[in-house]
Design goal:
Distance between the termini: 9 Å
Radius of gyration: 20 Å
Order of helices and strands: HHHHHHHHHHHHHHHH
Helix content: over 70%
Strand content: under 5%
């Protein structure tokens, strides 16, 4: 790594807000915990949709991840334009292509052939990164021209989901998450920082409790996507409001526990969320099938401990493998330390 790159990284390190690292660390833990509940406890069955812990996580964690992404990517797009898009293309798309190729080669070696289901299954891996890239792409296009009508088209983009009710799950998730990306960009543009999360922001705490009890299994985007009918639009609006309440409450709670952000371990996890998401998706989600065969069904404390153990293992693996520039570039979309 050159001296100029070292100086740039050092500058970024000084400018980092420990609060947002803590938020991202908390979110990646919730991602893993949600997968443990879904695959280990309920074996990816219908029971997970009524699980209280699963509902508490899935009500808001994906929208908040997208909101935080928009908070940082939005400013970068405004400052660097298309350069930001190329940088995000490397970070978000290369890991998916790498792991898809490895998955396909492994299936060829193990089974001697491929079917269409396995190919699509490998492509669907890391779907969140692909949708995040689509959000960055659309936001870059929206900011490309300083024209009210041009930008309004992209702001109203989720409404286009009504025209395509039979979209695949990835399309449904894009129309669901795109507004939260815009919310994050708007918060950054409006000067909202971690220090601003006080006063009326605490109203999100009781609002999130109310949203939790009002949230029904049919409110999941997996069950009721945006479609051109009154019931679907009503459900979509309520789902968005519930997620907003959960997002606001989580941000406030992390602000109240802001001392966590100063723990070095939390900061390191928060800076490695992309790599941790990649590793947990390809290492542990397939392994959860063995839990199903074993008939194991842990309780909430065991789920939390298992999720924490997975998080620590993934981080240690990332810390070792991330030292290789080539490995880090191909698997995590990063430059690598080269140490």
């Amino acid at each position: 790594m050159t001296s100029s790159e070292n100086a740039e990284d050092a500058g970024k390190e000084r400018r980092r807000d420990a609060y947002w690292d803590a938020v991202k660390a908390g979110l990646i833990f919730l991602v893993i915990l949600g997968h443990v509940v879904q695959y280990v406890v309920h074996h990816n069955g219908a029971e997970c949709w009524t699980d209280p812990l699963f509902k508490g996580i899935y009500m808001f964690h994906l929208p908040l991840f997208m909101l935080v992404s928009g908070y940082f990517a939005g400013k970068s797009v405004m400052e660097r334009g298309w350069q930001t898009l190329s940088r995000y293309a490397v970070r978000l798309l290369i890991p998916g292509f790498t792991f898809s190729l490895i998955f396909i080669l492994f299936c060829l070696w193990k089974d001697g052939g491929l079917d269409r289901h396995l190919i699509f299954s490998s492509i669907r891996k890391l779907w969140f990164l692909k949708i995040l890239f689509c959000c960055v792409f659309c936001y870059t296009l929206a900011m490309w021209k300083k024209h009210y009508l041009w930008r309004s088209v992209f702001l109203l983009l989720p409404l286009a989901g009504c025209l395509f009710p039979e979209l695949r799950q990835s399309g449904k998730m894009f129309f669901y998450l795109w507004p939260f990306f815009l919310m994050g960009a708007a918060l950054r543009h409006g000067g909202i920082t971690s220090a601003s999360l006080s006063g009326y922001w605490f109203l999100f705490l009781p609002a999130s409790v109310m949203a939790y009890f009002l949230f029904l299994p049919g409110d999941y985007v997996y069950h009721t996507p945006l479609a051109p009918d009154i019931m679907s639009i009503r459900t979509t609006l309520l789902r968005t409001l519930y997620a907003m309440a959960g997002c606001g409450a989580f941000l406030v709670l992390m602000r109240m526990g802001r001392h966590l952000g100063h723990l070095r371990a939390v900061q390191r996890v928060g800076r490695a969320t992309l790599a941790l998401y990649v590793l947990q998706a390809f290492l542990f989600e397939p392994a959860f099938v063995d839990w199903e065969k074993a008939g194991l069904k842990p309780g909430v404390p065991a789920c939390v401990l298992l999720a924490l153990a997975i998080l620590i293992f993934c981080y240690l693996l990332y810390a070792v493998t991330g030292r290789s520039r080539l490995f880090s570039q191909l698997f995590y979309g990063e430059r690598g330390s080269g140490k």
